[in-house]
């Protein structure tokens, strides 16, 4: 166990997510906003928007972000050599725990999506600006379908919190819960990121040793999940071990 007494001032700076929250009625993308303005803002700044006109998902996919959803990003300026994936895990674990707390059973689907009843409720987009080898700026964007409509074209794969619980939710309240949880998780695992990885792995929908379905060159294949890493998984398929990057998709 470590205590505050063991932390330097630099370490303490890392603990304060959400000291500054910028609320925008509309923006192209909260990730873009922080990327373009990171020099003006301090570590831990959160930007939230009512709606995004060009919300982005992983692999350059469009992220539909109408009013009613929870669309926000967090600016990290890590002073310790923490991998960007540390912050992604903090975010996914925080969302996972907040949902559990409000009675919504959910799973983290590798790499970092939150699924309920086989449908995606929340996605996370982490982007990094490097200075040489060092991650200088990490922007972690979280998008959760909350009170927003799920249109017909995505209804087979996406779900909203209001669909699950049958009521509307307070977006600011949810934001605060996620931020508080993120601060707790950072505080707990900041000095031992490998312990966070263990906890995160335990919460994943798929465990090492299980059969999974994944997309390989656009075709669905079934294989045994051998190893889970931050950015890739190793899958055994017909006695061959394949490395599947997080850019490809685990189907089920
Ligand atoms: C994914 O699952 O592909 C990640 C989706 C991330 C969406 C969020 S919404 C807030 C932030 N701004 C963006 O443009 N994207 C992220």
């Amino acid at each position: 166990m470590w205590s505050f007494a063991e932390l330097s001032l630099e370490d303490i700076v890392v603990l304060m997510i959400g000291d500054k929250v910028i609320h925008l009625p509309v923006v192209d993308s909260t990730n873009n906003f922080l990327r373009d303005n990171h020099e003006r803002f301090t570590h831990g700044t959160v930007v939230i928007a009512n709606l995004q006109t060009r919300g982005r998902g992983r692999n350059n996919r469009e992220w539909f972000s109408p009013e009613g959803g929870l669309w926000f990003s967090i600016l990290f300026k890590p002073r310790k050599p923490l991998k960007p994936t540390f912050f992604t895990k903090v975010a996914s674990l925080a969302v996972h725990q907040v949902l559990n707390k409000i009675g919504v059973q959910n799973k983290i689907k590798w790499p970092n999506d939150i699924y309920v009843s086989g449908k995606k409720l929340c996605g996370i987009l982490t982007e990094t600006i490097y200075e040489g080898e060092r991650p200088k700026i990490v922007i972690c964007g979280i998008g959760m379908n909350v009170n927003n409509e799920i249109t017909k074209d995505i209804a087979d794969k996406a779900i909203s919190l209001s669909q699950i619980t049958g009521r509307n939710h307070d977006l600011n309240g949810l934001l605060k819960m996620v931020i508080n949880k993120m601060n707790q998780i950072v505080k707990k695992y900041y000095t031992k990121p490998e312990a966070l990885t263990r906890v995160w792995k335990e919460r994943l929908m798929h465990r090492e040793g299980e059969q999974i379905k994944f997309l390989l060159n656009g075709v669905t294949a079934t294989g045994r999940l051998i190893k889970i890493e931050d950015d890739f998984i190793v899958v055994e398929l017909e006695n061959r071990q394949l490395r599947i990057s997080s850019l490809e998709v685990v189907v089920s």
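Residues 29-31, 52, 55-58, 61, 63, 65, 71-73, 113, 123-125, 141-143 surround biotin (CB under 6 Å). The first strand starts at residue 21 and ends at 27.
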